[in-house]
Design goal:
With 275 residues, the protein is of the alpha/beta class. The protein is built from 8 helices and 15 strands. A 6-stranded mixed beta sheet has the order 10-9-8-11-15-14, sandwiched between helices. The protein is globular, with a radius of gyration of 20 Å.
Length: 275
């Protein structure tokens, strides 16, 4: 029998099958072969003995949060409390795109911004839309429902950004736990302890533990460069230009002309420098 892993707690795997949910263990050979089943994996199971026999090939996977076979990633980003981090936002966009997952940007806590900050946010939103990303606020959850139809969706973003709150708006029956922002730390408290995939009416959606940092791991510098999709609109004299120290770089010129958002370029330089 085949099924989809929808929850993992310790060494217990909850698998959705045609006959309902089954709690299974993984076979000992997985550890010897360095195979780690993930939420979202399709697998073959022994329903009589409740064992996972085989993990089927994945189309993609993320290391943090640990999940496989995802169609869309909602990058939930707070504008205040915690403050907007372009560095983290751009890193998530790059990592998600490199893993062949469609990123959708969802900004939260717009109500906490003053008049000038709202004007600045409109410019930011317009830029990310112009370069090809879907950008919404957490108040547009009805629109999100339509966009996510028949998709497997992961919700990711910094701790305290409002991921669980957004999921509760998308489907009130989820009733996921939320918590306040820690005033002393200036960031959210962890409320989600594990990755879990929920089957809603039209799509699957996962709630994941929040995080404040990410690592590119074995992703190459070229992959990072190519994940900045607006760079591809500029033809540099050097075919393999990395847009850092090269002469006559068209991307650097575009930054100076404010055609490319300076925060995006600074994120890119930071990623290349610290890779």
């Amino acid at each position: 029998m085949q099924g989809k892993i929808v929850k993992i707690i310790s060494n217990l795997y909850t698998i959705e099958t045609d006959i309902g949910l089954l709690d299974c263990r993984a076979r000992g050979k997985f550890r010897k072969c360095a195979i780690t089943p993930l939420v979202g994996d399709m697998c073959v199971i022994d329903k009589e003995n409740n064992y996972i026999l085989e993990v089927l090939p994945r189309k993609n996977e993320l290391a943090r949060p640990q999940i496989a076979n995802v169609d869309v990633a909602l990058i939930v980003t707070s504008l205040k409390k915690p403050n907007l981090s372009f560095h983290l936002l751009d890193k998530m966009i790059s990592i998600i795109s490199i893993n062949h997952i469609e990123p959708i940007l969802v900004f939260t806590k717009l109500d906490l911004l003053n008049k000038n900050e709202k004007k600045e946010f409109k410019k930011i939103k317009k830029y990310y839309q112009k370069i090809g990303y879907q950008v919404l606020t957490n108040q547009e959850y009805k629109k999100l429902n339509k966009m996510l139809k028949e998709k497997v969706v992961v919700v990711t973003g910094q701790t305290g950004a409002g991921k669980s709150t957004l999921l509760n708006k998308i489907n009130k029956n989820l009733n996921l736990k939320t918590d306040e922002i820690s005033e002393s730390l200036g960031r959210g408290k962890h409320t989600t302890r594990h990755v879990e995939l929920f089957k809603l009416k039209y799509f699957y959606i996962a709630d994941t533990p929040g995080f404040s940092s990410l690592d590119f791991g074995d992703i190459s510098l070229v992959e990072i460069r190519n994940s900045f999709i607006e760079f591809q609109n500029y033809s540099c004299p050097f075919k393999n230009c990395m847009h850092v120290k090269e002469r006559n770089c068209r991307v650097k010129e575009a930054v100076e002309k404010e055609e490319i958002l300076d925060s995006r370029y600074q994120s890119y330089l930071n990623f290349v420098k610290n890779k």
